[in-house]
């Protein structure tokens, strides 16, 4: 099985093939903006769902990293630890990966600092505006008018750091589904992907 985004796959021959497919797709999703799995759906315990950009996948710690605004409702819902679900889907390959795990929000940590340092000022400017969900009398980006379509200077971006945070999801279960007209295939991995309790299940 060759896990290429947008390509049809041959059915996997083993659970080890599925493990490799999951890890390969998530690694590609971080690096390739054109990957269908670059922007998964993230669900929180309050039954709210949103599309987020996958920023990092660590196979060793079995964690996913996303960027968020500390003022966003999901930051309060997740806090120091809460259930989070993440749904990835590659329409071309007909592969769905569902992740269940525990999320936590970090604002003042080495991970958050490193994530902030690796961002561009154009991306950081999102955290300068009004908080997510702030009411407005007209359609708005929430950004200060002088920064609409403009990359801020370093001194302008400094206040944005206090609104920036990361969402870390420690995955506790992977659920992999391959859709095929000849018959769907599904596998589950409980615990860390490497060494996890793995099994085939009915789709």
TrEMBL record:
Signal peptide positions (record): none
Highest taxon above the source species: Bacteria
Regions that span the bilayer: none
Domain Pyridoxamine 5'-phosphate oxidase Alr4036 family FMN-binding, residue spans: 26-105
Family annotation (Gene3D superfamilies): Electron Transport, Fmn-binding Protein, Chain A
SUPFAM superfamilies tied to this protein: FMN-binding split barrel
Pfam families found in the cross-reference section: Pyridox_oxase_2 (PF12766)
InterPro entries per record: Pyridox_Oxase_Alr4036_FMN-bd, Split_barrel_FMN-bd
A GO MF label: FMN binding
Protein name, per record: Flavin Mononucleotide Binding Protein
């Amino acid at each position: 099985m060759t896990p290429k985004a947008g390509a049809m796959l041959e059915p996997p021959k083993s659970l080890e093939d599925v493990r490799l497919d999951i890890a390969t797709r998530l690694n590609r999703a971080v690096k390739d903006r054109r990957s269908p799995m670059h922007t998964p759906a993230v669900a929180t315990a309050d039954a709210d769902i949103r599309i987020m950009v996958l920023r990092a996948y660590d196979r060793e710690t079995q964690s996913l990293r996303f960027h968020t605004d500390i003022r966003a409702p999901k930051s309060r819902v997740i806090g120091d630890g809460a259930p989070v679900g993440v749904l990835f889907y590659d329409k071309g390959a007909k592969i769905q990966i569902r992740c269940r795990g525990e999320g936590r929000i970090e604002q003042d940590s080495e991970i958050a600092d490193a994530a902030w340092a690796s961002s561009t000022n154009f991306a950081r400017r999102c955290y300068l505006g009004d908080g997510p969900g702030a009411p407005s009398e007209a359609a708005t980006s929430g950004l200060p008018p002088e920064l609409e379509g403009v990359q801020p200077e370093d001194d302008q971006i400094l206040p944005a750091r206090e609104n920036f945070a990361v969402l870390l999801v420690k995955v506790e279960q992977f659920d992999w589904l391959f859709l095929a007209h000849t018959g769907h295939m599904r596998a589950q991995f409980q615990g860390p992907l490497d060494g996890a309790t793995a099994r085939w299940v009915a789709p």
